[in-house]
Each structure stands twice: as C-alpha cells, then as structure tokens.
Amino acid sequence: MKIAFIPIDNRPVCYNLAVDIAAIDKSIEFFIPPREYLGSLTKNADVEKIYEWFCTLPNVDKVIISLDTIAYGGLIPSRRSKDSEDTIKERVKKFRSIWTKKKTKVLAFSSIMRISNNNYNEEEKEYWKDYGTKIFEYSYNTHKCSLGEFGSPIQNLIPKSILNDYLMTRQRNFNINKMYLEWQKLGFFDELIFSKDDCAEYGFNVKEAKELEKEGGKVITGADEIPISLLSRAIEKDISVKPVFIENDSKNLISNYEDVTIEQSVLNQLSLAGVKVKENADITLIVNNFKNHQGEIVMKQPTEQFSGEIRLPDTPYMIADVRNANGADNNFVENILPQIKLNNFYGFSAWNTSANTLGTLICAAKIKFNAKEYNDKAFKKVQMTRFLDDWAYQANVRQTLDKPQDIKDKMKPYEDKISKVLDIEINNDYIYPWNRLFEVEVVDESC
Predict the structure, then answer these.
(1) Parallel, antiparallel, or unpaired for β 218-221 and 240-245?
(2) What is the pLDDT of residue 197?
(3) What is the model's pTM?
(4) What element of type H or E holds 111?
(5) For site-directed labelling of 280, which of 33, 60, 235, 302 has its Cα 20 to 30 A away?
(6) Considering the chain, what percentage of its residues have pLDDT values greater than 70?
C-alpha cells in the first residue's frame, strides 16, 4: 500500500512517530514531505514546497492530510495567521485539484481553533499574554449563558481591537471548516475529521463543534494524534480490541484538556482507527486511568498513583498509561517492566493528553498485528522512544531541569532498563527541536 502523509508540523510526535509507526510494516510505502518543509514553533510550513512535493508524488492509494498545514502553515499558525479567508481558500483549492486528478482517497483533518485558559502566548497571538484568560472567560460565559449579541460582561475588560481581531480570526477559521464540510458532501474526502483540543464544557470552540455536527461533520476530541489515527484507519484490515480499565469505577471521569470521559475517549479513538470492540478480542487494551482526577506532571498537579500489582495477560495486549497528562505513572511503569514479554506485547504510550496516547498506541498495534512484512526493529524503536520520552524524560528527568540541556547521563539508567526489556542496544542522543522542555527528541544513533 502506498500512503502519502502531510503532518501538522515537525515535532517528533507528529513527524518522526508517523514515520516510525509506518515502518513497522515494510510493505507500506510511506511518502512524507522533507521535515524542513514543515512548520515549527516559530516558523510556518513552506506550503509552496509542500505543494511541489505533492505534485511530484507517484499515484498513491491514500493521502492523509493535516488541512491546517496546507491552509495556514501548521496548527499553531492557524491561530496566528493574518491571511484572508479568500487567500486561504485558494491555497487549499490548489491541493484539491491535485488529489482530484490523482484520483486518490483522501483522509483529512482540520482543527477547531482552541481557546487556552491561560496568559501564555507561546502558541497564540501576542496579546494572549495579557488577555488569554479574559478571552477564555468571555467565550465560556457567552456560550454558557446564551447571551448572544449582548456578549459577556468580561468583554469590557478586553480592548475592542483585540476582541474584534480574535473573533474575526475565529470566524475565518470556522468558515474554512464549513467549506471543508461542503467538499465532503460533494465526495472530495473519504474521511474528514474536525478536532477539538484544550476543551472546556462551554466556549466558542464547543459551539462551533456542535454546529459542524448538526451539518453532518465528525468531531473528535484530540489533535496531534489524529493524523496517525487516520493512518490506522487507512489500513483497512480487521482487528478487535477489548478495553480494560485499571480503575474501572472511575472510567466515567474526564481527562484534562478533554470534554469526554476517559471511557468515551478510548471508544472514540478505537472507532476512528477502524477497530472493533469485542469481549473476545485480538488485543487487550490496558488503560491505567485515574481515580479522582487526572494528574498533570508539568503543572505539578498530583493524583493518586497506581498502587498494588497488575498481572499482564499471556495473550496480546497494549498499554495506555493516562493516569497523568504529560508523562507516565512511575509506580505503574516499574510494576509492568519486569513482566513484559515481547511475543505478546503490542505497545506502550503515555504522552501528553489521553487522546494523544491512545491514538498513536492503537495505530502501532494495528499495523504490527496486520503487517504483511513485520519489521521488529521498527516496532522496538517506537517502544524505546515512548518509554524514554514518556516515562524516563517527562515523568523523571524533565522534573530536574529548568532549561534545555545535555541529559545523556541522566537518561542512562533508564536506557539500561529499557534495553533489557526490549532486548536491544541503545545509543541515543537527546535534543530539543523547539528549544523548550516540553518536547525532547530521542535520536537513535544506532540507525
């Protein structure tokens, strides 16, 4: 199968992870733009170069497109871009003309612009550092109270020029999403997903999601994992999964940054991946969920960690550790590592949000289970990266840092443990692709 893939941006979890997961099956011919074409924290994607790359592709069976990349230059630029609605429409229509000529199936996703409840403008417009929480409150209250044109009293605390700019940007992006929905009705997409992340119970993003759903749009809570979930869906092979929750009485609780229960998040990701839920399933999905609330390691928000013991099954299984956002549960990982046997192990993940963890975990497991030409080295590379990023770095080493620095020595004890579990030699370097602590790139020097 030949698959083309246009990521959200150049982060390791968006770019490298997609490449590494696809490599688990050598029969998949995977086409992806050069990484330097993609956007970063401070740079927009080079849309013209991606277009040229797209035009030169051979005929592929399916193309997976992050529409934010070709429309705005990436997920972050979608919130910052000053381009007009007409300019963006013409840009995307160029791509549509090519995939129409190539007669390929297109699986696409577009984000519903998030509303972060903070005064942190690293990924937003400049004014977010002063008015982010006020804009969030305005959005939340306007939707909740159904005040309509009268708005929320908090708007008086936001300069009119800033509020107008924000609302115009939202309306532009929403109009673009409505255009995509019309294209889907005309048959241009084989699958179209609208994503919402950093959700609250109310807000303009929630309101827009409901309007898109009324018109037949499919909305999923999540973001960064969705292109990889669509890769899973593109592999049209049967696989069944049985979810098992460590804290079964708490599966109705809602994860951080999401607006659905952890159980519903699991079911949504399985459905998007084209996976059936069965009692007597091919693979068991073990979910290390939270009891009272999800922890947040980065924000120093603790939760009750895993206690007791778990016995891993003798049948195929994979593990989603979502007890915390942004990092693994140390007690849980230390419990499972000695038990892992490679013959029935289909993956581990614990990065960022619950949806992020689930979507990418399921894809790797599905490709491994159905691989025509299974690549054990590639599967082990994915697992090495997840354990060393999600557990060693995020849950441990990162907590000792106040800025990016050389961490090879700090990572060595964790490398030794993972090398024994996966039966591989590890010779890694670690870099900070966006020059911040939030993401580290595990560079496998042995490749």
Answers:
(1) unpaired
(2) 79
(3) 0.95
(4) strand 105-111
(5) 235
(6) 98
Confidence of residue 68 (pLDDT cuts 50, 70, 90): very high
**Which amino acid does the sequence have at 152?**
S
pLDDT digit string, tens, across residues 341-384: 999 999 999 999 999 999 999 999 999 999 999 999 999 999 99
Q: Delimit the domains of the chain by residue range.
A: 2-231, 238-400
Q: Is 394 left (phi over 0), alpha (psi -120 to 50) or beta?
A: alpha
Query: Which amino acid is located at 418 in the chain?
Result: I
DSSP lists the bridge partners of residue 4 as 31, 63
Torsion (CA) 404, 408, 409, 411 in degrees, nearest 10: 90
Instruction: Catalogue the E-assigned strands of 238-375.
Output: 240-245, 276-277, 283-288, 295-296, 317-321, 324-325, 345-349
CA–CA distance, 98 with 55 (Å, rounded to integer):
7
The structure tokens listed for 1 are 């199968």
| Residue among 66, 79, 288 at smallest CA distance from 192 | 66
Cα–Cα distance for residue pair 124/166, rounded to 1 Å: 11
**Could you tell me the CA-to-CA distances from 109 to 8, 68, 118, 177 in Å, in that order?**
10, 8, 26, 10
Q: Which fold has domain 238-400?
A: Rossmann fold (3.40.50)
Among 323, 316, 320, 317, residue whose Cα is nearest residue 358? 320
- What are the pLDDT digits (tens) for 394-441? 999 999 999 999 999 999 999 999 999 999 999 999 999 999 999 999
Whether the Cβ atoms of residue 206 and residue 143 lie closer than 8 Å to each other: yes
Q: How far apart are CA 12 and CA 441, in angstroms?
A: 6
Torsion sign across C-alpha atoms 138, 86, 214, 64? negative
How many CB atoms lie under 10 A from the CB of residue 146?
9
Count of Cβ atoms closer than 10 Å to residue 169 Cβ: 17
- Per residue in 108-151, pLDDT (tens digit) is 999 999 998 899 999 999 999 999 999 999 998 888 886 454 55
The predicted pLDDT at position 392 comes to 98
